[in-house]
Backbone:
């Protein structure tokens, strides 16, 4: 290698390293980790730092799901006594768009997934029936503002997040003579062109009832290049939409959430009840994940988050090692582009603190740690606005006129401020001065 070639090589290496580092840092800076702690939903930065309460619910949350675009948050849990709650939050406005209470002795709710940005799939389970617990699937439509019962099992249908493709299973059968006659079919339906394609078929002829083979759990990949599905709950198969070829990946039990890695390089599943990661292009390349881990969720194509011993860990596929990220953090969820979503950032904490101010509750410095500068400014002025003060600043006037509680008081003066009001003004000013 000549001297010039050597210099050029190292220059390119430095540029590539710089690019990779910047890309990784940009990725990290635009993401966050959500988790459960003491029955409430918390959030932290990519490195586990800057933990803060995301929302304050009326009960203890057992499970939660963010919509793909982070505009909505569905959660369910328990309240006092035998009362359960099921709520959906509009994150931008901080308002509940769905609120349901139910008797925990009689009913239970189980989330399946967001089928698109506005459709949540879940099941209501009636606990007390003659045949034991009985479940029914429902689809909650954000735009329609209601939940409709659906006549198909959640294990036999899936949509892509943009709601352009649907994959579903159906069966043509005849139960005469206790033999299954017909076909099990997997369909790919294009919701835009309204075209339907059968992508996989099983001939049921000869199978006896109870021993028939079934196609279940179809899952469209993130890039919409693949469809994974189960054959008889034992074999994991993948259909490639580009070349229309289906191949067996492994013997596995498929997870229903966060199955594909972000760019569809890997599949996270279970093989012989052990958590594994499988390379889609090279299925023999299987990585066994920590067996005592649960709630695995993809963070990138090389990292997963998971829960172990009531803490959240990060697992590296490259090093095959894990690292403690957040203590006392259950059911971690990775939020892509969270910090880029300005409408989402700090919305609920602001609303919560605003309610404290309107209720004449004294704030603590710790309440303000994770509120950005603009919202600190709005909070401070809400102390005056609650007594009807008008403002010379157009942004403040626009902000408070949109509030239902704001009423202009032509006789306003600072003498209307309570002792807690004055204390809150001082507390916020101190926090602002230290930034």
Residues:
């Amino acid at each position: 290698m000549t001297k010039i070639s050597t210099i050029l090589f190292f220059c390119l290496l430095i540029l590539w390293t710089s690019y990779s580092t910047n890309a990784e840092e940009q990725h990290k800076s635009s993401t966050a980790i959500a988790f459960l702690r003491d029955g409430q939903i918390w959030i932290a930065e990519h490195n586990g730092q800057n933990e803060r309460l995301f929302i304050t619910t009326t009960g203890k949350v057992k499970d939660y799901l963010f919509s793909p675009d982070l505009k909505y948050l569905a959660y369910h849990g328990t309240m006092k006594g035998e009362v359960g709650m099921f709520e959906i939050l509009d994150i931008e406005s901080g308002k509940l768009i769905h609120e349901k209470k139910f008797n925990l002795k009689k009913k239970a709710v189980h989330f399946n997934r967001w089928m698109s940005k506005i459709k949540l799939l879940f099941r209501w389970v009636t606990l007390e029936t003659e045949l034991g617990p009985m479940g029914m699937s429902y689809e909650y439509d954000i735009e329609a503002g209601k939940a409709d019962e659906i006549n198909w099992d959640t294990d036999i249908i899936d949509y892509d997040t943009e709601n352009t493709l649907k994959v579903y299973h159906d069966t043509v059968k005849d139960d005469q003579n206790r033999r299954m006659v017909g076909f099990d079919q997997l369909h790919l339906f294009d919701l835009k062109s309204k075209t339907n394609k059968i992508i996989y078929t099983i001939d049921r002829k000869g199978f006896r009832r109870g021993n028939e083979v079934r196609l279940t759990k179809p899952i469209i990949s993130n890039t919409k290049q693949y469809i994974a599905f189960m054959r008889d709950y034992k074999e994991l198969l993948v259909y490639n939409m580009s070349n229309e070829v289906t191949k067996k990946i492994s013997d596995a039990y498929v997870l229903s959430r966060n199955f594909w890695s972000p760019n569809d390089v890997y599949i996270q599943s279970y093989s012989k009840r052990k958590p594994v990661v499988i390379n889609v292009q090279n299925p023999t390349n299987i990585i066994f994940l920590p067996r005592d881990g649960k709630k695995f969720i993809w963070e990138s194509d090389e990292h997963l988050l998971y829960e172990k011993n009531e803490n959240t860990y990060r697992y590296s596929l490259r090093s095959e090692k894990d690292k403690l990220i957040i203590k006392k953090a259950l059911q971690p969820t990775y939020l892509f582009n969270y910090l880029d979503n300005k409408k989402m950032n700090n919305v609920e904490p602001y609303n919560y603190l605003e309610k404290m101010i309107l209720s004449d509750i004294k704030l603590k410095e710790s309440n303000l740690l994770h509120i950005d500068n603009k919202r600190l400014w709005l909070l401070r002025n809400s102390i005056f606005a609650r007594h009807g003060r008008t403002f010379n600043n157009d942004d403040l006037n626009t902000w408070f006129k949109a509030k239902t509680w704001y009423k202009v008081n032509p006789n306003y003066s600072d003498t209307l401020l309570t002792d807690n009001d004055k204390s809150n003004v001082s507390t916020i000013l101190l926090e602002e001065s230290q930034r």
Observations:
- The chain has five helices and 30 strands.
